[in-house]
Amino acid sequence: MKKMSISSRFAVGVHILTLIEFNKDGVSSSEYLAESVNTNPAVIRKITGMLKKAGLVEVHPGIAGARLARKLSEITLLDVYKAVDVVQENELFSVHGNPNPKCPVGRNIQDAIIPVLSTAQIALEKVLGNVTIEDIVKGIVEKENISS
Amino acid sequence: MKKMSISSRFAVGVHILTLIEFNKDGVSSSEYLAESVNTNPAVIRKITGMLKKAGLVEVHPGIAGARLARKLSEITLLDVYKAVDVVQENELFSVHGNPNPKCPVGRNIQDAIIPVLSTAQIALEKVLGNVTIEDIVKGIVEKENISS
DNA sequence: TTAAATGTAATTATATTGGTTACAAGCACT
DNA sequence: AGTGCTTGTAACCAATATAATTACATTTAA
After folding, report:
1. pLDDT under 50 in chain A at which residues?
2. Which of A49, A55, B30, B41 is the most exposed place for a label (fewest CB within 10 A)?
3. CA at B98, C1' at D26: how many angstroms apart?
4. What is the CATH number of the domain that holds A13?
């Protein structure tokens, strides 16, 4: 059985932003980006639209190319994570909805575990918040240099 | 659009273990547990089977009732999380599979982000590892006392 | 006005979740 | 042994999400 995982929209979002930076002297159209991600331009446009709504990129209808709306060092992976909306606020974990209120465990289990789950989710998000697109770009440059 | 979230199997697993403890002087059959969780006994049996395989509970075919296989304080939420298999090892996040190797970003993006995602996942799991079923039981007892 | 790009909706294939039914196999008790 | 209850599983279903794809309206530059 294959298991749940957080949508690759997130990884694609990071890919898009990173590539825009790499190609900052060129034009990053949805077709161009799609070729690197290896998907359909419409998928790119949908994700780019989310990044735009979050204020991470600038895109304009009719005008080819997306550009970063902030400095590299001011876009964290958490920004991307939230922008592409892979997880609903405070709902990384889902809790069964209708436990039996006649049972002491049933009527309190939600209140007992939700704070823990929330703490775990925050810990995860904190890690993402400490990494920027700049870090990712640097990582890629490094790897390129090593293998050349 | 509704978003992804980690299967409630996890929360149900915690519920089951907690209830077994609450009902330690009684018989925790799948039917009994199902009533508190408010689901089907077969669902309980499936999850209980996973908890059993992970060495967290004792259950025997033909014999009614499940019992904890360890002390309360020695079962962490991380144990449950892993037992019920909601997330594949190191794959809480999914990364798009076929970026273009002709592009510097495409051929390195996976290596660049996977360590970050892994760190984030570990941070999440660490929080779960620091909370035991005993803590959950205490939490419920507290809430019950307050509201009585 | 024309060509090209973005924005967006509709559709599809695939997969997972959670629930449900059904039944084989195991154990206790008479 | 035979009955009754329980666990262990498999098969199936409905609902939902993802990602890809197609199509087209809107917008811009030239």
Report:
1. none
2. A55
3. 32
4. 1.10.10.10
